[in-house]
Amino acid sequence: MNKPKIKNNTYVVTERAYDSSASSEYNYSLWVGGNQTFYEVSADEVREIIACLQNVLNNTTGQKGGAQ
Questions:
Q1: Alpha-carbon distance 26 to 28, whole Å?
Q2: pLDDT value of position 66
């Protein structure tokens, strides 16, 4: 897989498999600092990860979305 060159070095790769009669659901892989952090997680798993991270930001900073 060719990883794109991104300035802040954090990005997501989306994959979907196809054949002559069907296609798979999307899978997502997260890269941070040049390291693959998550590999082939589903959309539902991505939503759960985002909700967990948002919750910890809200609870630890006292601000919606966390402190900047």
A1: 7
A2: 58
For 65, the token pair is 């979305």
Total of domains in the chain: 1
If the chain, 68 residues long, is cut into consecutive pieces of 10 residues, what is the mean pLDDT of each piece? Answer: 67 91 92 88 93 89 65
* CA 14/CA 40 separation, integer angstroms: 8
Write down the pLDDT at residue 29: 93
Is residue 68 in a domain? no
Residue 15, C-beta contacts closer than 8 angstroms, at least 6 positions apart: 26, 27, 28, 29, 40
> Residue 40: which of 16, 22, 18, 23 has the closest Cα?
16
Residue 31 within a domain: yes
The domain in which residue 44 lies consists of 10-61
13 CB contacts (<8 Å, ≥6 apart)?
Answer: 1, 3, 28, 29, 31
